[in-house]
Amino acid sequence: MLKDSLQSNVSACVSLQWRRMKPLISLNMELITLPALHRMAVCGGTHGNEMSGVFLVPELERQRKEKGDAIWPIPLTTVLSNPQAIKECKRYVDKDLNRCFTSAILSSPITDSTPYEVRRAQELNTLLGPKQTNDAIDMICDLHNTTANMGLSIICYSHTNWICLHIFKYLQAKITTVPVRLVLLNIPIGDAYSLESVSKYGISLEVGPQPQGVVRADIFNAMKEGVNAVLDWVKNFNSGEVIEGGDVEAFMFKKTVDYPRDPETKTPIAAVHPQLQDRDFCLLKRGDPMFLTFSGETVRYEEEEPLHPVFINEAAYYEKGIAFHLAQKQPWTIPSIQAKKV
Amino acid sequence: RERERARELMLPALSRVAVCGGTHGNELSGVYLVHERLKRRKKSQVMEPVAVVTVMSNPRAVQRCVRYTETDLNRCFTHAILSASEQTSYELVRSQELNSLLGPKGSAEAMDLICDLHNTTANMGLCLITYSDSDWICLHICKYLQMATIPVRYIHYDIPRSEAYSLDSVGKHGFAMEIGPQPHGLIRANIFMAMQEAVQLLLDWVRLFNSGAQFEGGSVDVYTLVKNIDYPRDPHTHTIIAAVHPDLQDRDFCLLHPGDPMFLSFSGETLRYKGKEPLYPFFINESAYYEKAVALSLARRRKLFIPKKVIQT
């Protein structure tokens, strides 16, 4: 039940990269010096019905008004990414905004028929980019929610984004209220389609489970804690101290699995099995139940390779033909880094 | 009370029953349950002992996986709206179509029983929501459903029938069967199975009732809506400034006392319940109610004694 999608192509890319990279992993990685971070943005409402970000962004502005800019280690821009979708409390109006940041879409001409989100992506690229130039903002922290039971997941779109990977390492050590995990994709920068790819070092914070259109206090607090920890990390990094590297545990996307569907109508004929529901990041082995049809039959995982399901039963993915992603758990070595004082 | 308990009720058979789903297009348990029932009927012309009409109430909203396209269908069944002429909006036209199909509301031709299937993001288990606290059919059904694996409760909105606005009010007897928690736009297997079990038990009860079975009297806890509480809002922008407090979130039907935490502002302050009377909260943090300015509903609970019931032959 593989979906022939961008993700499959991506996973093919990942396997190729991995074969090339493998010898490097065993070497002792040296200290890498990176420029200090000068400007960052926190974005919420990239999907208008993912409410933690929609409410955290105004709360950050309220803090700024009350206590001044000095509460943050560096100048911070807050953005409500998709105002129209937020107003309508929908994921998007015309087109998923978080798929509109490829170089091709960002440079496409605007006409009368250009979807709302494409125009908005180009506005955001002007505000926070331009992508792949020196003027681009140093970091975008993009806030998302999922209906899947994923705790706080850091989504990193490049396996050499050391800033993002170090932030994950820091958050995992610091945050104890929810499980913190790293989801790693490897998309070449030109093809990178999400908002944080506009910045030099982008990071996505995904917190769940939360229904769309709902703000839960516990999930909001987890998101707030995550953002505060990111800001702490930025402060530590910018101070010039050596941030120790090491091994982190990464979940690398390999493939997606769609719902079993009726061959004529294409509507799903099964739901995620109760024994798989809510068990994101657990191991799915051959023979384990995957789906339960509406007529009561169990559909099992038939592949040899045990993998870890992620984004199990995300409401927004039904239309993308995704019941869950399957990921491989890998240690990933990250080098020590230090901010270069300019 | 002894006399009430001993009392027997003679009521007519329920010969026409409707099961409706997709009244809100993104409440998927009902959508898929109706879908499955229609599919099974197409495949094998099984004669059910009761004539059950299965209806997908809002097909356009179902197709788009939204609650509604122009207006909330489940607010379109008041007498005023049903009798208005020249309705143009999709849901207003559709409510009149459903009224012709399952009603007309208030007439002898109306369905004997309508069961309208819904989901909620609130942690409510299974609730039968009706406009009456003296409809012995609905109360007996609620008592019978107690054998389901999910907790089952009876909610009563004290609204006169003509002002009753939901689809289930079109039938002579009716209720919304509300199951949660489930996010809108997705289907959870355990919630689907609970709804499937409950609908099966409901139809079993109707079949037994129609065949002359007697049901023991007993008692049912009835939760009657007293008031709705809105989110705290910014006085200028009107946007929400707090979420349901973690101590209240998911605690539907746990008694809320004066002084108990209700909301936690985004800046970290606790806001407490200022009412004088301890009440039972439900529909805590239902996503569709943000636009209706309802963070939670509050109910009084009382025990209702229901007489033994027999069918009139």
From TrEMBL, chain B:
GO terms for cellular component: apical plasma membrane; cytosol. Keywords: Cell membrane, Cytoplasm, Hydrolase, Membrane, Metal-binding, Zinc. It catalyses: an N-acetyl-L-cysteine-S-conjugate + H2O = an S-substituted L-cysteine + acetate; an N-acyl-aromatic L-alpha-amino acid + H2O = an aromatic L-alpha-amino acid + a carboxylate. InterPro entries: AspA/AstE_fam, Aspartoacylase, AstE_AspA_cat, Aste_AspA_hybrid_dom. The keyword Zinc applies. It is found in: Apical cell membrane; Cytoplasm. Its cofactor is Zn(2+). Its main location: membrane. Residues 15-204 form the Succinylglutamate desuccinylase/Aspartoacylase catalytic domain. It is an enzyme of class 3 (hydrolase). Binds 1 zinc ion per subunit. The active site is at residue 178. Its EC number is 3.5.1.114. Zn(2+) binds at residues 24, 27, 118. One of its GO terms (molecular function) is aminoacylase activity. It is a peripheral membrane protein. Residues 219-300 form the AstE/AspA barrel-sandwich hybrid domain. This is N-acyl-aromatic-L-amino acid amidohydrolase.
